[in-house]
Specification:
about 350 residues, alpha/beta, seven-stranded mixed beta sheet, homodimer
C-alpha cells in the first residue's frame, strides 16, 4: 500500500478521538482515524451502546450509541478518513521530525502529528480458555463474525452478537447443523432477536446446548468434537467442523507500550497545557493519558482534545500560535463547518 | 437577612456555573448560585441567546438559550438555590477557614467553598454618556425594566428589550405619552415585535424620535426635558418626567479584584489539578480563570468544573479523596440523579 502523508493521525475512534477530529477541523487540520474496531464509538459503542450516560454537559441523558452518532454528525464537515478494523503496530520517528505509523492492515502513514486517543486500549476478542484449542484459530476456530462454509457449526456465546450470527447462518440455509452453545439457558439480546431464536429452535433449524467447553477431540490436525460439561456436571461430545466464539471484547494497551512514551501505570503521561507526551508531536487525550488531577471522564477528554488541537496547530505552523476564534461569530470557522 | 450556611457558593450562573452545580451534585454537595443578572445563562443568555454555537461536544448546533435550558434541565435533580439580580460585593475568610460572602442584596453566606464562575465579569447596564444625567438615576432615570408611574415616558434603545418595554407600557394604557428614542430609524428585534411597534406608531399610541441625547433641561432637581440631536444635526426639546434606557449590558470584573486572589491581566490564576486559586477553598472556572494553555471556551469550562468538584469534595471531607464513579453504572450517582 502507498504510504499516506498527513498532518494528523488519531489512534482511536471513541468520543475523545472523534472530538479530536472536530477540534483539529476547526484548526483546518484534516485527520486520519485508526481504530481496532470495525466501527466508530470505542468503549461507548462496545461496552455500553444502549446504557444511558448522564454526565455529558448539556445532554441530560444519552446512550453510548447516541453519543457516537452525535459526534459523527458534528465532525462530518471535516471529512475525516477512517481506517477501521486495524490497529497501529509500529510508530517510528523520522529524521525530519515526522512519524511513520504502520497498522496491522499494512497501511503506512507519514504524519506530522499523532494523537493517541486509545481509551483503555484496543479491544481484542476475549479468547476461549480451553487448553490447546488455540491451534485451530484461523482455520476452524474464529472469534466474531467471519464468512463460513461450515457444515457442522457451533456458535458459542449468550449475547446479541452470537445470536445475530446464529440467525444469519440459519437464514442462509447452507450449513447442515447449527448449534448455539451457552453456559446457561438465558440470553441477553433485544426481544425481537430472542423471539427469532425461539422460532428457529422450535422448527429444529437451530439446536441449543447448555454447558461449557471442557475439552475437545481431534483427528490429526482437525478439530472434530467438543467435550461439553453441563451445569449439573454431565458431559457430552458435540461433533463439529467449525467453531465461532462470541465472548465479548476486552481492552489491551497493546503496542503503545513500545513507542518510547513515558508511562505511569499503563497511562501515557502528558502535560496539561498541550496534552503532549514526552515526544513532541505526539499527543494523548482521553482515558489513556494521565496528569495531576486526571479523571477518566468523557467531559475531560473533550477539553484535552481541544487544547491538543491548538497545540497541534502551533506545532505544524512552526510555533505560530493559533488564535482563539468562536464558532458563534467567526466567519472563517463557519465556512470550515460548511455553514456559509 | 439570616446568614445562609452552605458547603458551596457559586458566583455566576452561566454555563460554567451551571455545570459546576451538576458536578458538585454528583459529589453530594448542594450549591447556592449568585448572579448579577435576573436569570440564569450568563453571556449565553445575554450576549448571544439566539445565535448558534457549533462547538459544544455532541451538540452539532445549539443556541445560547438552548444551552442554558439544557443545563438547567440537567442540574434539576440537584435543586440548586439561585440568588439572582445581585452580585457578590465582599468575601472574607473566617477564622474557621470558611468564607463570609455578602451580596448587593444584603444576603450573607457562610460557606466552606467558593466557586468563581464569573465569566467576563458581572453584567452591568451600559450607561448614558450624557454629562450630569446620572443625578437622576433611581428617581427619573432607570436602566432596564422597572415599574413606572410615568405620564411622559421616554424609552431609549433600539433592541428587543427597549421595544418590549415600550409595547408593555403602551398596552397598560396608563401613561399619557410614550416616546421611543433611538439613534436611527432601524430596530433589531423579532418580526412580531417590529410589527407591533409599527401598529402602535400608526395608531399614534407610540411616538418615535430619531436622534441622540445631547443635553437636558431641569427645574430645581427635576429632569424636565431632553435635548435631542437628529442625525442631520437639528436639535429639539423632548419633555418628559421619566426616562428608561436600554443600552445593553457590559461586563465588569467588579469587586472580585479586591478578594486577595492572584490575578493575571484581570484573570484569576488557578492550578490545572483542582482549578483552585491561591486561596484554598476558592476555585475559579470558565472564562474568568487563567493557566498555561487556557482557552476561553465553554468545553474547557466543563472540564474545569468537573475537576474542581472533585477537589471540593476532597477539601470538604478532610482530604479524603473522592472516588471516581460513572453515571452509567453507579447506583449511588443514579440515586442522586433521581433515577432510582
Amino acid at each position: 500500500m502507498i504510504p499516506i502523508p498527513s498532518d494528523a493521525v488519531i489512534v482511536g475512534a471513541g468520543p475523545a478521538g472523534l472530538f479530536q477530529v472536530f477540534q483539529l477541523g476547526l484548526q483546518e487540520i484534516h485527520a486520519h482515524v485508526i481504530d481496532s474496531l470495525p466501527h466508530a464509538g470505542g468503549q461507548c459503542s462496545t461496552l455500553y451502546p444502549d446504557k444511558p450516560i448522564y454526565d455529558i454537559p448539556a445532554l441530560p441523558v444519552c446512550t453510548g450509541r447516541e453519543l457516537t452518532t452525535r459526534l459523527l454528525a458534528q465532525i462530518k464537515p471535516f471529512k475525516p478518513t477512517f481506517h477501521l478494523d486495524q490497529e497501529v503496530i509500529q510508530v517510528e520517528k523520522l529524521a525530519n521530525g515526522h512519524f511513520e505509523v504502520t497498522t496491522s492492515a499494512g497501511q503506512i502513514f507519514l504524519t506530522r502529528t499523532l494523537f493517541i486517543a486509545g481509551g483503555v486500549g484496543s479491544f481484542q476478542a476475549r479468547e476461549l480458555q480451553v487448553e490447546g484449542i488455540a491451534q485451530f484459530r484461523g482455520t476452524q476456530l474464529h472469534y466474531g463474525v467471519h464468512d463460513t462454509a461450515a457444515q457442522q457449526l457451533v456458535i458459542v456465546g449468550g449475547e446479541a452478537a452470537a445470536l445475530d450470527f446464529a440467525i444469519t447462518q440459519c437464514e442462509k440455509n447452507v450449513t447442515t447443523s447449527i448449534t448455539l452453545l451457552h453456559r446457561r439457558d438465558h440470553f441477553q439480546a433485544p426481544p425481537a432477536t430472542l423471539d427469532r431464536i425461539t422460532q428457529l429452535r422450535l422448527t429444529q433449524r437451530l439446536q441449543m446446548v447448555v454447558g461449557q467447553i471442557t475439552g475437545f477431540a481431534q483427528s490429526r490436525d482437525r478439530l472434530t468434537a467438543l467435550r461439553i460439561t453441563a451445569p449439573q456436571g454431565d458431559t457430552q461430545q458435540l461433533p463439529l467442523d467449525t467453531l465461532h466464539a462470541f465472548l465479548g471484547l476486552s481492552p489491551k494497551l497493546g503496542p503503545i507500550a513500545q513507542w518510547g512514551l513515558n508511562l505511569d501505570k499503563k497511562q501515557v503521561q502528558v502535560d496539561t497545557e498541550k496534552f503532549q507526551t514526552n515526544i513532541p508531536g505526539i499527543f494523548a487525550v482521553g482515558d489513556i493519558n494521565t496528569y495531576p488531577g486526571k479523571k477518566r471522564l468523557i467531559t475531560c477528554a473533550f477539553h484535552e482534545a481541544t487544547l491538543a488541537a491548538f497545540a497541534c496547530a502551533t506545532h505544524i505552523h512552526a510555533d505560530l500560535a493559533a488564535p482563539l476564534q468562536y464558532t458563534t461569530t467567526s466567519k472563517k470557522l463557519q465556512r470550515l463547518l460548511g455553514l456559509t
